[in-house]
Amino acid sequence: MEAILAWIEKGGIVMYPLILLSILSWYVIIERAVNLRVKNFLPRNLTEIKALISRGDYESALKISTVVDHPFTKAVSVTLEEYLKGKKEKGYLIRLMEEELSALVPKIEKNLPILSTTASVAPLLGLFGTITGLIKVFQAYAITTQGEAMNLLAKGISEVLVAAATGLGVAIPALLAYWVYKAIGNHILDRISEEAREIIHSLE
């Protein structure tokens, strides 16, 4: 604990916003690791709905699609209602379903802006700490004796390096996690789109 406090003290004032960004980014990394899964964005009764549609039992499929409160089942029910009204053009039904499913996009991309912001801002804060550390060094160097100046120079360089290293240490995991979760999110969206198109093409 003392080593951590000493590290923070060496890095200067920029260490506090960097610590805050680190806490936020790791919260998002853990939250997305737990929740960003395909099964969380598809309804549990999807297999049953698809089986009923493939058998042509659209009324039953419509009925059970309203049982689970889920954006996907809502999209299915809206699409089936239009289909049963006689609007059977596949292109129209696909557009309708994708429009309804767009409600899932913010949930899939939830909190990712925090990671991208952290990845962008943390290195800049580290750079700011570097500059302020150098300013302190040269200001002190100008008004002290040579022996004291060397001690201040060493301390200032330490602050410069700690701030820069911490900025990069906060930014790199956030940037990696952002692109990993972005790729996972795109995969989930593709899977949802495939399921939607499969349902549409099952309609006779």
TrEMBL record:
Location within or outside the cell: Cell membrane; Membrane
GO CC annotation: plasma membrane
Protein keywords: Cell membrane, Membrane, Protein transport, Transmembrane, Transmembrane helix, Transport
Transmembrane region(s): 12-30, 121-141, 161-181
Annotated GO biological process: protein import
Superkingdom classification of source: Bacteria
Membrane topology: Multi-pass membrane protein
Domain MotA/TolQ/ExbB proton channel as annotated: residue spans: 78-192
A Pfam family matched in the record: MotA_ExbB
Family: Belongs to the exbB/tolQ family.
Protein name listed in UniProt: TolQ-like protein
Annotated organism of origin: Aquifex aeolicus (strain VF5)
